[in-house]
């Protein structure tokens, strides 16, 4: 699992590539959490190259979204593959964060 | 690991080590590829095996002297039958509390999503305590 981060005009873009499985969480989980919880602005996770996702990965997204929400910002998941979106929707994550298939404008939760 | 051809199941012996799970999942995927299982079912089977093994290993169910976890995978008529046998303490995953996917973000915790995925993806979940071993079947 590869994790790359860039700041695009105040929006943190996190690009994940590979399998977001139990081993990957142990490798990138802390780094992802640090990035998401210390950035003062919206966070977009580019999931287009994520090939596998299970509950531990969902938990990582939930924790990040909660932290962002407390600071008035939002987490957006960008372009998940169908198999990954199947898992996201089954766990109801689409009710909690935006899942978009086009490059979204940065958004913040209204204060 | 013993792997048969034709209708023979895939059998894998797994140690109580989380880092071993992805390798098992990849073996399961390869086996299901050879069976011609549809992508959606194949992915769900891969998720299921990760959830079951993570649960067995992570929640300290390895009893003193626990040796290994056995995984058996069979291709059925367009579907998949996963069987996981462990020699940990008795635990029926079906008894885990229900997870509500409509729970708002501020009330969400990390727990419960794995068993929810299993319940959602499987046509049937079966559990038997067989002597000193748990036998859990996931039928997709």
Please characterize this protein's 3D structure.
The complex is a heterodimer of chains A (111) and B (140). Chain A has 111 residues and is of the alpha/beta class. Chain A has one domain: STAS domain (Transcription Regulator spoIIAA). Helix content of chain A is 38%, strand content 32%. Chain A has three helices and five strands. Chain A has helices spanning 22-38, 55-70, 82-90; strands spanning 2-8, 11-20, 43-53, 75-78, 98-100. Chain A has a five-stranded mixed beta sheet with strand order 1-2-3-4-5. The model of chain A has no long low-confidence stretch (mean pLDDT 92). The longest helix of chain B has 20 residues, at 39-58. Chain B is α+β, with helices and mostly antiparallel strands and 140 residues long. Chain B has a six-stranded antiparallel beta sheet, with helices on one face. Chain B has helices at 21-35, 39-58, 113-121, and strands spanning 2-3, 10-14, 69-75, 80-86, 124-130, 133-139. In chain B, helix 1 (21-35) runs antiparallel to helix 2 and helix 2 (39-58) runs antiparallel to helix 3 (113-121). Chain B has one domain: 2-Layer Sandwich (Heat Shock Protein 90), CATH 3.30.565. Mean pLDDT of chain B is 89; it is low at 1-5. The A-B interface holds A 19, 21-24, 26, 52-56, 58-59, 62-63, 65-66, 69, 82-83, 86-87, 90-92, 95-97 and B 18-19, 21-22, 25, 39-40, 43-44, 46-47, 50-51, 54, 99-106, 108, 110, 113-114, 116-117, 120-121.
């Amino acid at each position: 699992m590869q994790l790359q981060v860039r700041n695009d005009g105040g929006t943190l873009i996190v690009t994940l590539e590979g399998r977001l499985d139990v081993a990957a969480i142990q490798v990138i989980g802390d780094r992802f959490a640090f990035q998401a919880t210390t950035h003062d602005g919206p966070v977009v996770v580019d999931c287009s190259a994520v090939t596998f996702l299970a509950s531990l990965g969902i938990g990582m997204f939930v924790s990040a979204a909660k932290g962002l929400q407390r600071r008035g910002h939002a987490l957006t998941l960008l372009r998940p593959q169908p198999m990954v979106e199947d898992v996201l929707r089954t766990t109801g994550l689409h009710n909690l964060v935006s899942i978009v298939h086009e490059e979204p404008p940065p958004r913040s939760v209204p204060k | 690991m013993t792997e048969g051809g034709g209708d023979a199941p895939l059998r894998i012996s797994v140690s109580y080590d989380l880092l071993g799970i992805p390798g098992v999942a990849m073996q399961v995927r390869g086996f299901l590829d050879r069976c011609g299982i549809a992508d959606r079912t194949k992915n769900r089977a891969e998720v299921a095996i990760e959830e079951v093994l993570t649960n067995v290993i992570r929640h300290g169910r390895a009893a003193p002297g626990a040796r290994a976890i056995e995984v058996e995978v069979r291709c059925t008529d367009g579907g998949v039958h996963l069987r996981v046998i462990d020699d940990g303490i008795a635990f029926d995953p079906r008894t885990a509390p229900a997870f509500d996917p409509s729970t708002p973000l501020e009330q969400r915790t990390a727990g419960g999503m794995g068993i929810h995925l299993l319940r959602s993806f499987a046509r049937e979940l079966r559990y038997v305590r067989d002597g000193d071993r748990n036998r859990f079947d996931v039928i997709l």
